[in-house]
Amino acid sequence: MKITSTGIENGYYKPIYGGNGDLINENGMPTYSIPFTIHEAPTDTVSFAAIFYDLDAYEVTQGFPWIHWTLANLTTTDVLENTSQQATDFVQGVNTWHSPVTDHQPAELSAHYGGMTPPNRDHNYTLKVYALDTTLALTDGFYLNQLTDAIKGHILDSSILEAQYKQFKH
C-alpha cells in the first residue's frame, strides 16, 4: 500500500494546509485539510483509518506528539483537500487543539483537521493510513486511544507519508 498527496511540493506541504494559509478558525486553528490518495490497498479492505501527527512537536509540548487529524471508516481511496470541515462519509476524532496544551478548544471544533503551525522551526509531519477488514464502532469526537484500540486485530496493511511544513510566521 502507498499514499500520495497533491498537497506536497518539494517535500513540503503547501502553506494553505496550516497556519501560513488563510483558513483559520476563531481559535487560531488552521482548518483547510490535506488531500491524499491511497494506492494498492488490499482487495479485501472494508475501510481505512488515518492519523496525521507531528513528532517534532515534542520540543514545543514538552514531551507529546501533536495530533492534527484522526479519521476512521473512510471507504474511498481519495480524500480531497478541505474535506474535513464538511465530511459526512467518515468519522473524525479530536485533535490536540482540544488539549490543555492549547486553550481547550471545544471538542466539536476539534473533531476535524487541525492544521500545522510549527512555532520553532520547520517540522516533519507523518500521515499513517491503515487498511482495515471492518468498519469501526466510533463516532465523531473519538480520542486517539479509542482509534488505536479499535483497529487492533483488523489491520490488513498500513503505509506512511512524510513531508515537512515551514515554520509558522505569526
UniProtKB/TrEMBL annotation:
SUPFAM superfamilies in alphabetical order: PEBP-like (SSF49777)
Species this protein is from: Latilactobacillus fuchuensis
InterPro entries, per database record: PEBP, PEBP-like_sf, YbhB_YbcL/LppC-like
Alphabetized Pfam families for the sequence: PBP
Segments passing through the bilayer: none
CDD domains: PEBP_bact_arch
Protein's recorded name: Phosphatidylethanolamine-binding family protein
